Amino acid sequence: QVFVCGDDVEAKQMVMNIVHALGLTPLDKGSLLAAQEIENYPLQLFPMWKFPIILSFGLTAFFFFYCLALDVIYTYIYENNNFSFFIAITIPNRVCPVMALILLALVYLPGIFAAIIQLYRGTKYRRFPDWLDRWMLCRKQLGLIALAFASLHAVFTLVTPMRAFVSWRTGKGIISQALNNKTEPLNHTTAWISDSYLALGILGFFLFVLLGITSLPSVSNNVNWREFRFVQVR
């Protein structure tokens, strides 16, 4: 995108035509009063990411310490089991999907609030409250952070069979069956539930990635509103 501002409408349109001819996307930022704001853009450090990052960090810390207290501290004090190694993979793998779903919900929740406010006011031409306006402007950042958490969850899930704890638990089950001279039959119901859970998880992650890709400016600029809405709704 190329920001264009000016007080002369014809001159500004000429510049925007040149930008179009260069294969870029012009963005009209209004009069020359906006020039100083545009010039300060390169000096800003992630201005629209501050609130999403702080919110994500706060929620992540809350759920992490909650799982830490429940799975590590509680079991160590009351059951005398040392599961401190859960901090590396198990707890993050529980926090990541929760964060991904919460942040994804926060992407679409302001749209519901905006619709309620518009219905209450009876018009869509009045400005939203400042808190809702700032929330709606950072929806894309919240969605990308949610996609990052979902990707981390997928990676943590893939490395789960490689963990020493999982290998030990599997070996313990095999030894127990050998000592008892008994082989546990395959529970087809459990197998169906497990495979369906994984299949739906893979499908959900694929749709999440597709949603994130279509939200990128370079992609969204090449699809019309109906195509973009089709992907968002699905």
TrEMBL record:
Gene Ontology CC terms, in alphabetical order = endosome; plasma membrane
Compartment(s) where it occurs, according to its Swiss-Prot or TrEMBL record: Membrane
**Ferric oxidoreductase domain boundaries:** 98-232
Pfam families reported in the protein's UniProt record: Ferric_reduct
**Keyword Transmembrane helix carried by entry:** yes
Topology relative to the lipid bilayer, per the entry, is: Multi-pass membrane protein
GO MF annotation terms: cupric reductase (NADH) activity; ferric-chelate reductase (NADPH) activity
Alphabetically sorted, this entry's keywords are: Membrane, Transmembrane, Transmembrane helix
Q: Its domain of life?
A: Eukaryota
User: GO annotations under biological process?
Assistant: copper ion import
Keyword Transmembrane (UniProt): yes
Instruction: Report the PANTHER family cross-referenced here.
Output: DUDULIN-RELATED, METALLOREDUCTASE STEAP4
Q: Tell me which family the UniProt entry assigns to this protein.
A: Belongs to the STEAP family.
Q: What is this protein called?
A: STEA4 Metalloreductase
Please report the organism this UniProt entry assigns to the protein. Answer: Origma solitaria
Encoding gene, per UniProt annotation: Steap4
